[in-house]
Specification:
The protein is α/β, with parallel strands linked by helices and about 325 residues long. The protein folds into two domains: about 5-125 and about 295-315, NAD(P)-binding Rossmann-like Domain (Rossmann fold, 3-Layer(aba) Sandwich); about 130-285, Dihydrodipicolinate Reductase, domain 2, CATH 3.30.360.10. About 35% of the residues lie in helices and about 30% in strands. The protein contains nine helices and 14 strands. The strands form two sheets. It has an eight-stranded mixed beta sheet. A six-stranded parallel beta sheet has the order 3-2-1-4-5-6, with helices on both faces. The longest helix has 20 residues, at about 165-180. The chain is globular. Pfam families: GFO_IDH_MocA (PF01408). One of its GO terms (molecular function) is nucleotide binding. Belongs to the Gfo/Idh/MocA family. This is Gfo/Idh/MocA family oxidoreductase.
Length: about 325
């Protein structure tokens, strides 16, 4: 008897084709029974490469005709909203890439439908599963670290289609990362610089300050002023006499106070329980795992469905991140 979850794919573009679909190989075995995309050439390539038996160009048609347990959806925020709503109402569980909709109002509607239908949902904020950020969170919550007192992050990108799209698709990642690390945050100040804002080409930069109820202060710097071929992402957490620095996802340093040093004219020794702990991924290893969190989030979603658990972040959690975009707009008015 085949007890595998029956999965449908909605959106067969680059991210799904090149990366996300392959993450299923780490999860509990499932049956991918159908795929949907409005672009028939893209659909042909995807279903042919992955040997998926049934294809659709209309997701409503797929939901009506297929007996699906869940979908994996990667399109764009506007279509994510439409697909998620239709899937839940059809009795289907949902994994959707960030961002699941274009506004807080839509997020609230999705949450209402989630509660109404009782369906399981998860939003793909992959930074919550990224190896270096998970390690940073674990260490920052240890008694040794002494709490996070300052948070600084940078997240840069190449020019975007629009300022609104940049905030919705890019800045939101580090809003969610701050919430993941610290809990709820309150924005206190924002500045913006614009280099170019022509149709289809926006270069904009933001510096955003926030605080938490526990007294942590933080800043997020994010802009579409860079070329993504250059290092684009950084996080620093400051504790009590120690800090954690993550550079571009793959380089992690935990600096701990060394205690009493020898006199300056004598050689330094590494101090057990002090000095720096360093992690970075070995490029010499067989490239079977990316450390960006996609494998872990798909494994986690399928595992939750298999064992009847509710994953996070779901739509209820995501509303808090979406509201930070509203708060950012209000600060800039």
């Amino acid at each position: 008897m085949d007890n595998k979850l029956r999965i449908g794919i909605v959106g067969c573009g680059r991210h799904m084709f090149e990366f996300l679909y392959n993450c299923l190989r780490w999860a509990h075995p499932v049956s991918v029974v159908a795929a949907c995309d409005i672009d028939e050439k893209r659909l042909d390539k995807f279903t042919g490469h992955y040997n998926i038996p049934t294809r659709y160009t209309d997701f409503n048609d797929m939901f009506e005709k297929e007996s699906l347990d869940a979908i994996l959806c990667v399109i764009n925020p506007a279509m994510h909203y439409e697909v998620c709503k239709a899937a839940m109402l059809a009795g289907i569980d949902v994994f959707v890439e960030k961002t699941p909709c274009v506004s807080t109002t839509q997020a609230e509607e999705l949450l209402q439908i989630q509660r109404q239908t009782g369906k399981t949902t998860m939003v793909g904020f992959n930074r919550r599963f990224t190896t270096s950020y998970v390690m940073a969170k674990q260490i920052s919550e240890s008694p040794e670290f002494g709490g996070v007192h300052m948070f600084q992050s940078q997240f840069n990108a190449s020019p975007y289609k629009s300022d609104a799209d940049f905030k919705l698709s890019h800045i939101i990642h580090h809003f969610d990362l701050a919430r993941f690390m610290l809990g709820e945050i309150k924005l206190t100040h924002a500045q913006r610089v614009i280099l170019d804002d022509t149709i289809g080409h926006t270069q904009v930069g933001y510096t955003i300050s926030f605080q938490t109820e526990q007294g942590t202060i933080g800043s997020i710097q994010s802009g579409s002023l860079l070329d993504e071929m250059y290092p684009m992402e950084r996080l620093e957490l400051l504790g009590n006499k120690q800090n954690i620095v993550v550079e571009n996802i793959r380089n992690f340093v935990y600096n701990r106070p060394p205690g009493t040093r020898r006199e300056q004219f004598r050689p330094y020794n590494m101090v057990e329980g002090g000095d720096a702990l360093v992690w970075n991924s070995s490029l010499g290893l067989y490239p079977r795992f990316s450390y960006y969190g996609y494998e872990d989030e798909i494994f986690y979603f399928i595992d939750c469905l298999t064992h009847g658990r509710k994953p996070e972040p779901n739509f209820e959690d995501t509303i808090h991140t979406m509201r930070l975009l509203d708060d950012l707009d209000a600060l800039l008015q």
